[in-house]
Design goal:
Structural class: mainly alpha
Shape: globular
Helix content: over 70%
Strand content: under 5%
Number of helices: 11
Order of helices and strands: HHHHHHHHHHH
Oligomer: single chain
Distance between the termini: 29 Å
Number of strands: 0
């Protein structure tokens, strides 16, 4: 078994022991947002882009579940394993390389993010939100979104000297990316300059694609949304290994 898969296996073994707590913790926030906004605010909004507001929000929440887990897993979890538990230092005494460590953590984040998105998907499916056979394809944008966020988060972690600085990352990037992702309102209501900036937000592309697949209304520029996610992943893929090498070795 390759070192990358061994790291994934280790993480899933830990998840197996605490899966109930982990799923409740990571799925509670998306479900609370779905309830508060979809049902609470939805009582005052008749429809959104031809959908009930509850369906509009719920379909977007599925993708956003991947955002939170990928960000948390590749920031706080990784930082703790480096500085407090010294897990990486122990693993590097084996044939595993820094590249194996980095990509093992990224793969773990993607797998866990996808599992949590599936959990939210199961809830909205039971509530009748999903009404298209295209929904079987929703893991594609979820996986790509989780990959991009995991890469960004690993880069941030490699440059962060103290765990408290992750508050800035969450407040200045993750929270705005979530707020302006199209989960709660369409992005075409923003000024033209803001709509251009939104295209730099990976969460927007993941939410747009995921919502289209779940409700059976593929966005006209679906190929562009997909291309942006793939392009971001390719552009970011080189940096985590390079930066972690400098941090762990030098």
């Amino acid at each position: 078994m390759s070192p990358i898969l061994s790291i994934l296996k280790r993480s899933l073994h830990i998840l197996k022991k605490t899966w109930l707590v982990q799923f409740l913790m990571n799925c509670s926030q998306p479900l609370l947002y779905m309830t508060a906004m979809g049902i609470g605010v939805g009582a005052y909004i008749s429809d959104m882009n031809g959908l009930s507001y509850f369906k509009f929000v719920s379909a977007g929440i599925v993708a956003s579940a991947a955002l939170w887990e990928a960000a948390f897993s590749c920031t706080y979890d990784v930082f703790t394993r480096i500085h407090y538990r010294k897990v990486y230092q122990a693993i590097l005494t084996t044939p595993a390389t820094i590249s194996d460590l980095v990509w093992g953590e990224i793969l773990t984040a993607v797998v866990k993010s996808t599992l949590y998105s599936f959990a939210v998907f199961g809830v909205i499916y039971c509530m009748g939100v999903v009404d298209s056979w295209l929904a079987i394809l929703f893991p594609i944008p979820v996986i790509l979104l989780a990959l991009v966020i995991a890469l960004i988060s690993m880069i941030v972690t490699s440059l962060t000297p103290t765990i408290f600085l992750f508050n800035y990352y969450n407040n200045l990037f993750i929270a705005p990316a979530y707020a302006f992702s199209g989960v709660f309102f369409p992005m075409d209501t923003l000024p033209n300059w803001a709509q251009i900036l939104v295209w730099l937000n990976p969460v927007y592309h993941g939410v747009t694609l995921c919502r289209g697949l779940l409700i059976g209304q593929i966005p006209p520029l679906w190929w562009a949304h997909l291309a942006v996610l793939i392009g971001l992943a390719l552009c970011l893929a080189y940096w985590p290994t390079r930066l972690f090498y400098r941090r762990l070795i030098q």
